[in-house]
């Protein structure tokens, strides 16, 4: 299938119900001597996924990261781990399954490690879809392809899996971005004023507050599934408009921290729940 000395981190990307785990399970089943499937729903936490991925790479195996990986921040984590092992290739397969198809599959799904009802699955799907950001060529990958439902199967043969991997291997290599230019402290100091002397001219515009607070799904990434459901239930009991009530305000007022505490679930309780971001 591949050079035995070649190591690959294969990052699967797609909504829940898009078919990622079906492919990942077939990949490991047919080629268990070369690939390890790292599935968060089965392992129980992102930490365990990291542990298995690193240990497998150390053993010379390739790994398949079987998670939703719905935005650049999620994917960057696995790129970083791949870069800890020089010479490792980073491939991405995007499962471009339409939302309606994913929803239909979730309605008929009867067993899943972390989704216990179709209603719960549809709620998570809706939130993932709103925060989903497709991969771009400047995230550090070497190759990337997209699979549509017609390209996938419910029962992959070894030939089917090989065909998809060969599609990735034969796809155009993504050119690596240039490394940022490092500027010394002395050079930065000279650039602060036209004559190269004096103190830095600081921006005196008033601070308007952070504009990039973490989204709910990024809280779920760290805290678990209850970041979805505890936040929603606390809002529903106090307001008829969750879209307005559940969002923390932006700014530097003292009320901000109070609003955010209402929005976030208890951290201890969250840690005891499975991280829903691994679902397929």
TrEMBL record:
InterPro entries: P-loop_NTPase
SUPFAM superfamilies: P-loop containing nucleoside triphosphate hydrolases
UniProt xrefs under Pfam families: AAA_33 (PF13671)
Organism: Collybiopsis luxurians FD-317 M1
Biased composition (Basic and acidic residues): 185-203, 268-280
Origin organism lineage: Eukaryota, Fungi, Dikarya, Basidiomycota, Agaricomycotina
An example Gene Ontology molecular-function term: double-stranded DNA binding
Gene Ontology process terms (BP): DNA repair
Record keyword Signal present: yes
Keywords: Signal
Region Disordered, residue ranges: 179-215, 231-280
Ranges of compositional bias, category Polar residues: 204-213, 231-241
Entry keyword annotation includes Signal: yes
N-terminal signal peptide: 1-26
Protein name from the UniProt record: P-loop containing nucleoside triphosphate hydrolase protein
Superkingdom of this protein's organism: Eukaryota
